[in-house]
């Protein structure tokens, strides 16, 4: 989410390298890429330069995400707490504000069900606190998306566990989402290795909604999760509407979560997109 402020109106490309264990396409990284992609870390192996996608590790560049507890009780509200420690081992207390928040916290089950976009509160001792409730049992992935003051943006991830039996959810190809009386259509064709334009259109009662309200400093927020791994990336529209420049590094199936605000309410539309398949009209 921190990269959005660095994206230009028309020149930014989103490398959608993310995913969960629902994996319909089992592509794995790392992949050739650009060092400034959010959450990525440039590494050199011989002459090849690769960019590790964010959210795969709980520790990177000396910063570590440490939850107080990794066990959740399905259906029970939890006061979830965690810390980000720095290279010296002390809790970090200074963070840059990115899109009106110092840290964005994403929780999703590994089959990409139960998606939540949350914003914890930071205590003076470096402890982050957020109310968290997961509806069902399963294995979850939590992502902390932040920029320590004076350092580069990072996305760290940890596994959380809600004991109990559950049935993994399937996600067939879908370019339409119905949420809270709104219908959202996603147009565009993801082509691996090429910049692709994705555009979301929101309608209500058959009419296009043209007065979306700002949410956290943008008209929309897009999180991409790719099948086959647990990497993460989040960007915002390249312009006044819900248009995104997207460049996927490999063929596969992607889950996309779009947050938008209208009538004072934030809603999330979820899509399943396979590379090389044009959006349904």
Write the layout of secondary structure elements.
Elements: E1 14-15, E2 31-32, E3 41-45, E4 48-52, E5 59-60, E6 63-67, E7 78-85, E8 103-109, E9 116-118, E10 121-122, E11 127-132, E12 138-146, E13 154-162, E14 176-179, E15 182-187, E16 195-204, E17 207-208, E18 221-226, E19 233-235, E20 243-247, E21 253-262, E22 265-274
Parallel strand pairs: 1-20
Antiparallel strand pairs: 2-4, 3-4, 5-6, 6-7, 7-11, 8-9, 8-12, 10-11, 12-13, 14-15, 15-16, 16-17, 16-20, 18-19, 18-21, 21-22
The overall pLDDT average reads: 80
CA radius of gyration is 18 Å
Question: What is the percent of helical residues?
Answer: under 10%
Supply the number of helical segments: 0
SS elements, strand count? 22
Give the overall silhouette.
globular
Strand-and-helix sequence, N→C? EEEEEEEEEEEEEEEEEEEEEE
Uncertain segments: 1-50
Determine the strand fraction and express it as a percent band.
Answer: 35-45%
Structural class: mainly beta
The description of the largest β-sheet is:
6 strands, mixed
Q: What is the distance, rounded to the nearest whole angstrom, between the alpha carbons of the first and last residues? A: 29 Å
Offer a few descriptive terms:
disordered N terminus; mainly beta; single chain; 281 residues; five-stranded antiparallel sheet
């Amino acid at each position: 989410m921190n990269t959005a402020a660095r994206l230009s109106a028309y020149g930014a490309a989103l490398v959608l390298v993310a995913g969960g264990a629902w994996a319909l396409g089992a592509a794995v990284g790392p992949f050739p890429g650009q060092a400034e992609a959010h959450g990525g870390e440039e590494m050199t192996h011989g002459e090849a330069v690769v960019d590790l996608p964010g959210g795969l590790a709980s520790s990177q560049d000396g910063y570590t995400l440490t939850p107080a507890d990794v066990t959740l009780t399905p259906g029970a509200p939890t006061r979830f707490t965690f810390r980000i420690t720095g290279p010296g081992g002390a809790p970090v207390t200074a963070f840059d504000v990115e899109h009106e928040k110092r840290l964005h916290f994403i929780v999703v089950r590994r089959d990409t069900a139960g998606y939540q976009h949350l914003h914890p509160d930071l205590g003076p001792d470096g402890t982050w606190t957020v109310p968290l409730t997961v509806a069902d049992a399963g294995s979850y992935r939590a992502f902390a998306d932040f920029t320590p003051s004076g350092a580069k943006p990072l996305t760290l991830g940890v596994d959380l566990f809600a004991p109990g039996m559950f049935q993994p959810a399937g996600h067939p190809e879908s370019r339409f989402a119905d949420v809270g009386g709104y219908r959202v259509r996603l147009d565009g064709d993801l082509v691996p290795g090429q910049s692709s334009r994705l555009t979301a259109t929101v309608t209500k009662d058959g009419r296009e909604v043209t007065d979306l309200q700002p949410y956290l400093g943008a008209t929309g927020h897009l999180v991409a999760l790719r099948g086959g791994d647990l990497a993460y990336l989040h960007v915002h529209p390249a312009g006044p509407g819900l248009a995104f420049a997207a460049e996927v590094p490999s063929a596969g199936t992607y889950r996309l979560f779009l947050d938008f605000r209208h009538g004072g309410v934030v809603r999330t539309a979820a899509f399943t997109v396979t590379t090389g398949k044009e959006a349904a009209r």
